[in-house]
Every structure is written in C-alpha cells, then in structure tokens.
Amino acid sequence: MGKHEPMTPKAIGKRIKAKGLQKLKFYCQMCQKQCRDDNGFKCHVGSEAHQRQLLLFAENPNKILDQYSSEFLHDFLQLLKTRFGTRRVAANMVYQEYIKDRHHQHMNSTRWFSLTGLCKYLGQKKICEVDETEKGLFITYIDKEDIASREQAAKKAKLEKDSEDKMRKIIQLQIEKAKAAEKPKEEVANPVEYKPSETTVKFSFKATKPTLKRLK
After folding, report:
1. Residues in domain DNA/RNA-binding protein Kin17 WH-like (predicted)?
2. Which of 78, 94, 111, 208 is deepest in the core (most CB within 10 A)?
3. Which of helix, strand or coil describes residue 28?
C-alpha cells in the first residue's frame, strides 16, 4: 500500500490521535498548530513559518495578546452562559468543558496565567460571583441583561401604581366636591340675647290676726 493510503492501520491511528485532545505544551497558538510530541514541537519551533509568526508578534505583542484574551474570554463566557446559565458551578468544570474543543483558544496565550487568575478577573469586573471553598473555586454568571430587564419591569410597575393612586385620589376629591355641592345649607337661628331688667321689684307683707269661729 502507498504512503498516503487512507484506510491503512497507520493512517487510521493518526486520525484517531488527531481527533483527541493533545497536550497543551505541544500547541503553538501563533501558528494554531498542535504537535503530538516533544520532537514534533521542536521541529515546528525551528521552522521558517513559525519564525515569521514570531516576527509579527514582536512588532505588536500587546495587540495580539489582547486579541487572544478577548477571544478566550468571549468563548468561555458564551459556554458558561449557554451551558450553565446563572447556576453556581465549579470553575474547573466549565474550563474542562471548554477545552474539549480542540480548536479552542488556549489560556497560555492570554493575559491570564491560571484559572484562578481568570476567576479573580471575572469577580473584579462583576462578570461573575466568585467564591472559594475547600472544593475549589465556584463561579456564578451575572446576567446583566436579565437584571436590567427586571429592574425596568419593576420601575414600570411602580410608575403604573403611582399613576393609579393619583387617579384614585383625583376621583375621590371630585366625589367629595359633588356631595358638598348637593347638600342644602342649614339655616342657623339667631340666638336670643338675654338682657337683665333695670327696674326693681318690691314685695310687702302685712300681718293679719287669725279669726276663731265658734263651733256650735
């Protein structure tokens, strides 16, 4: 069989190895090339194509580093949001899920040197709630869009309630005014003022002798 025969055992073995996740230390992010072993990685590093990529990196290292970091963070958060939502989950579990894709952006090409550094960054930027336990780091994604939506709904409900209360007070005031207009006014009688008389009244008494009648 020829060297490039597709169904040879050797070719099948190579395909199986290529599908699996290879060691991170044998991956070149600049060239986006995965090497299988140390010997292959050394050969790649000495290649002309790799040297050209290094020259490009040397011209503007910060720009390339920021680009890789941005791509890594976007893909990591996209997985966290879609796969786990706002549930509290172990950071390492999310990372292991993330690196299952053999074409993922590698962390060693970003500004973060470890998963712990990434989690601290997520906590400082209020992207995730981070808590450290005996079992490791746990993260909870903060869905700012959902929070903003709930705040907007609460604000709208408050405005509607205030409007209803204001309208209810206006209606009640109108009812009270209508009742006051229909009620007849009661006539109040003028009180009689008592004036004491200035004349003096004199009384006189005369003593009279009692008369005795003879009984027959």
Report:
1. 52-176
2. 94
3. strand
